[in-house]
Amino acid sequence: PFPILTPTQLIKSSIIGDRTGVALLMTYTITDQSNGCTPLAGVLVDVWHCDKDGNYSQYNSFTSASFLRGRQTTDSNGQVSFLSIFPGWYSGRAPHIHLEVLTAGGSSLLVTQVAFPVDVYNTVYA
Question: CA triplet 64, 90, 17: central angle to 5 degrees?
Fold first, then answer.
C-alpha cells in the first residue's frame, strides 16, 4: 500500500490525521552507505503504515483518506521526523512501518520496512 497521492499532499510532519492510538515519534537518519555512511541531505523520505486496527488509508473503505502517510525532506544531518501512532497489525504481518527514500528529483533509492521487537509491541498493545 504505497503512497498514491501527489507528493505535495503528503508533505507533513504529523501524519496522525483522524486516527487514535499510542503516540509515536519517528526520527530517521538517512545515510549514504556507499560513501562512509555520510548523511544524505535534501532527499525525500516517505512513510506510511496502518492504523491500530490494521487499516491503511487509500485502500478498502478508506480510499479518500490519507491518514498515517507523509513525506519530509532530510535536513543537513540526513534526518526527518514524523509524529504518528504505533501501528497495528493485520493477518500474516507483524507491526511495521513502510519507508521509501527518494532523490530530490523523485528517483527511488530505497524501499524498506521498519519492524519492532516482540516485547515492544506486546507492551504497547497491553
Answer: 35
Give the whole-angstrom CA distance, residue 107 versus residue 120: 33
DSSP letter, residue 118: H
d(CA 96, CA 40): 23
- Residues belonging to the chain: 126
Q: What is the pTM of this model?
A: 0.91
State the Cα–Cα distance between residues 100 and 71, nearest whole angstrom.
9
Render pLDDT for 62-92 as a digit per residue (tens, 0 to 9).
988 889 999 999 999 999 999 999 999 999 9
- What are the E-state strand segments in the chain? 23-29, 31-32, 38-39, 44-48, 69-73, 79-85, 96-102, 108-115
DSSP state of 109: E
